[in-house]
Amino acid sequence: MGDMTHKMLIESDYEDDGFIITDDTNESNFILIVNAILSGTARLNVLLPTATILSFSIFTPILTNDGKCDTLNRYLMGIFLVISSISCVFFIFTDSFRTATGRLYYGIATFSGIWTFNGGRKKPCVPSDYKLRWSDLFHACLSLVAFLAFAASNIDIIECYYKPMPRKVTNIVPLVVGFVISVLFVVFPSRRRGIGYPFLLQRDALYVRS
């Protein structure tokens, strides 16, 4: 009797085709949403390259003389801001691909495909997938505005260029702009896998290359 009851309990956990019946649909949907949010958030490091931000944090106090700028300091800092902005835009246009051997190659997106940094000798299997698109220009604008908002919130930049402005304006406006840009980048993520791309998320189904 005991063996029969035990057998009935085991069989009740299976469907007719032999698979365990589980009611985890809601849990699976919840996990998918959480993964999508976390994946999009992790990609924000592509929006502002770490090297650019680190260089900005190091050289800004030096070039602005800790906010006590003269004419030369303003010119030098302005040139550095232009260079940093160009680097942010440049990283947005970088991409990568793997060869049949698994080797990773980086390049920059062009209208004809991807031009690799080794002189363009290596090509992906489908070069058309790596062409420059309008979405790249959109993400480049987001990256540029995000960096300028970040730079505008720096105390040395504030003291150097627009000290007379009210403190509330210089504190709140860059934060609001940065938040809006971050949300847009999460909602409309880039499919580029360029320099700084988190490759641990490369298999994310929501960001497969179209």
Automatic annotation (TrEMBL):
Pfam families (UniProt xref): DUF679
InterPro entries: DMP
Main location: membrane
Keyword entries, A-Z: Membrane, Transmembrane, Transmembrane helix
GO biological process, one term: endomembrane system organization
Compartments, record wording: Membrane
Membrane-related topology note: Multi-pass membrane protein
TM region(s), chain numbering: 44-63, 75-93, 137-157, 169-188
GO cellular component annotations of the record: cytoplasm; membrane
Family per similarity comment: Belongs to the plant DMP1 protein family.
The name this protein goes by in its record: Uncharacterized protein
Organism of this sequence: Coptis chinensis
